[in-house]
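Why do we care about 3D structure at all? Because function follows from shape, and shape follows, mostly, from sequence. That is the central idea of this module. The next example makes it concrete: a single protein chain, its amino acid sequence, and then its structure expressed as tokens.
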Amino acid sequence: MTDLLNKGMPLIRYEVGDLSEWATAGCLCGRGLKTLTRVIGRQADCLMRADGSLVAGVSLVERTLTAIPGIAQLQIVQETPKTVRAYAVGEAGNPPAWADELRKALVRDLGESIAVDVAPVSRIPQEANGKYRFAIRRF
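And the structure:
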């Protein structure tokens, strides 16, 4: 991808893992090049279902956080195609009664053949850049 506007040196990026959606209509400038309608996210932030399809990790986190009471923060890490660990911070004073419900919800969304482990934690650390990642796929 290039920005085509930088006169000194075009910005060219290879294999960054961005997921996007192509526009169906051509560019209005008349160049005839493909354009994007939106950037969806990063491939590394998607989790792989049992059938091999990808699901945006942020959507899994949003669905479970809004549907299961007692979870304050959640990060889902997929180490292998068949193993997922969900690190969850409970709301103050709440015991992890939500852990089994969270595990069932993730198995339902990812597939029965994926082993899901829920790990209640007191906090989820930020990355070196200060950001908090909702989902991490390590393979």
